[in-house]
Amino acid sequence: MAATTVTDSGGVRIITEVIPATDPRAAQLASGSRPSAPAALSFQVRGFRRAQPKALGTIHIFTGIIHICFGIILTVTERRMPSLPVASGVLFWLGLLLLVSGSLLVESEKRDNILLVKTCCVVNVGVILSTLVATLVHTVAITHDIPGCKTDLPFQLKAEWCFNAENKILSNGLDSIFVIFCLLEFCSAVAALSFGYDALKQHSYKRMVL
Question: I want to staple 105 with a disulfide (CB 3.0 to 4.6 A). Which of 57, 70, 75, 124 is the partner?
């Protein structure tokens, strides 16, 4: 049987009713107080969407296309003496990774799927590590001579293009632009990962039935 207590406090009467677990009303209250799974899921995804994943995804897709296009152009023009970025293939594998990451981020804006948010976090960890490696590769390329122009012997002849300073200036300019792109991609990936991690660790609110 339900036990009822009445408490008067400051002109306010508080009536507390304790319902046994065997009472049919207890099951109805318990089922009605639990938040639905889609509601809790949507709450987590909304937290991730505060990072504007569509905008971040657009940045990744745009820069990914630039990486791949320049990778193709530089591979064709430097087929005999490839520079370090071309030889390492960083323009291609980073570009493909950015396209995948950007597509997932844009898709997460449209769908309430916590698994998609987890996938975005994992892929963006890869983007963060890849941009650090790519920045190192382009920085090393800036500090080194043009491929084929380094001489080990004192009287060794250099190729004709080695005496053209414009080639080195152009090469350093491209590597500097890619370093800036890598920093932009790094920042956007960190932002997506940060909001995604916060969304995953959020706890859904539940009502308590006494």
Answer: 57
Q: How many other C-beta atoms are found inside a 10 Å radius of the C-beta of residue 117? A: 26
Helices (H), the chain: 24-33, 37-49, 53-77, 84-88, 90-108, 114-143, 165-201
Type of residue at 174: L
Q: Could you give the CA distance from residue 98 to residue 52 in angstroms, rounded to a whole number?
A: 17
Predicted model pTM: 0.69
Q: What residue type is assigned to position 67 of the chain?
A: H
Mean pLDDT of the chain: 78
First to last CA, the chain: 15
Tokens found for residue 5: 């207590």
**Which distant-in-sequence residues (6+ apart) come within 8 Å of 32 by Cβ?**
none
pLDDT tens-digit map of 58-93: 999 999 999 999 999 999 988 877 888 998 999 999
Chain centroid to CA 116: how far?
A: 12
